[in-house]
From TrEMBL:
Protein name in the entry: Peptidoglycan-binding protein
Gene3D superfamilies named in the record: PGBD-like superfamily/PGBD
Record-linked InterPro entries: Peptidoglycan-bd-like, PGBD-like_sf, PGBDSf
Peptidoglycan binding-like domain residues: 23-77
Superkingdom to which the source organism belongs: Bacteria
Pfam family, one: PG_binding_1
Region (Disordered): 1-25
Residue spans of biased composition, Basic and acidic residues class: 1-15
Amino acid sequence: MTKRTAAEDKARSEETGLQLDQPTRQRVEETLTRLGYDAGPADGVFDDRTRAAIRGFQKEWHFAETGYLDEVTFVRLLAIGIY
């Protein structure tokens, strides 16, 4: 079992605070995939592939690479995904 860090707990809590519903989570996965990140199936389940895709997006945009959505990452992702 992997021990979670305080930073991971904080990032997880921030993502939970966004209160993303299933269709929104699917939209996040679809957008990540369309932008070239392999988020896995757009099923609304943020699994290891989704987490890696979020980290990749965060790295490209010089955000903290947590693998969890915070408000800044979420807004940037959706803003870029709308075209």
